[in-house]
Amino acid sequence: MVDSQQSVPTEIALLILVLGVIIFIWDLLERRRESLQKGGGLDKSSELISLRGSDNLPPKEYFSKSLGLSSRPDALLKEDGAIIPVDHKPLSNKVRDRHVIAMLLHMKLIEEIEGIRPPYGILLMGKKRRSTRIKNTEEKMRWLDAVIDEMRSIADGIPAIPSPSAAKCRNCDVRKECDHSAV
Ligand code: SF4
Which of 47, 127, 168, 179 is the most exposed place for a label (fewest CB within 10 A)? Predict the structure, then answer.
């Protein structure tokens, strides 16, 4: 006859405890993922696959041997088989050329290494993470190629030609010492 007062074996109790902990951690990770997607104004169908500073979704660095360049997006999303790079610029509310160039480089290297062209990248601007899509167009890629060529020429010793603009120089910290300042 079975004793109804018999206690649950220790192994079973431990198993239930371990399962409980696993479910708790899984729930915590899912909540964090959802909050990141909502906070960044991202589509719910996007799957977060890499995130800088995360142990669970390690950041990814892309390196191109042919270009000798590397890029490290703040995060990566998977959408309809494509990999979408995401950069967060907490100190800037405005999208600057340098933000777009860095995003274009992410997309160029992702295409070279993963073999699939990202249709766009996402910039999250400022503390409120205003979302801006940077489309991956032929025209923008030609601009990136021209910038890379210019950088190479400067590295090879051809002097850089400054093209200052008053709007940029006005807010530049080194304008008083700069010989090319437009203000
Ligand atoms: S002040 Fe000089 S360094 Fe600053 S933005 Fe203008 S040209 Fe560039």
Answer: 179
Domain ranges of the chain: 45-157
Evaluate if residue 45 carries a pLDDT over 80.
no
* Protein residues with CB under 6 Å of any ligand 1 atom: 162, 164, 168-169, 172, 174-175, 178, 180-181
Provide the CATH number for the domain formed by 45-157 in this structure: 3.40.1350
Distance between CA atoms of residues 5 and 180, nearest Å: 88
pTM of the predicted protein model: 0.71
Q: Of 127, 32, 50, 38, which is closest to residue 86 (Cα–Cα)?
A: 50
CA of 175 to the centre of ligand 1 (A): 6
Q: Tell me, in angstroms, the distance from the centre of ligand 1 to residue 43's CA.
A: 39
pLDDT digits (tens, 9 = 90+) for 54-64: 888 889 999 99
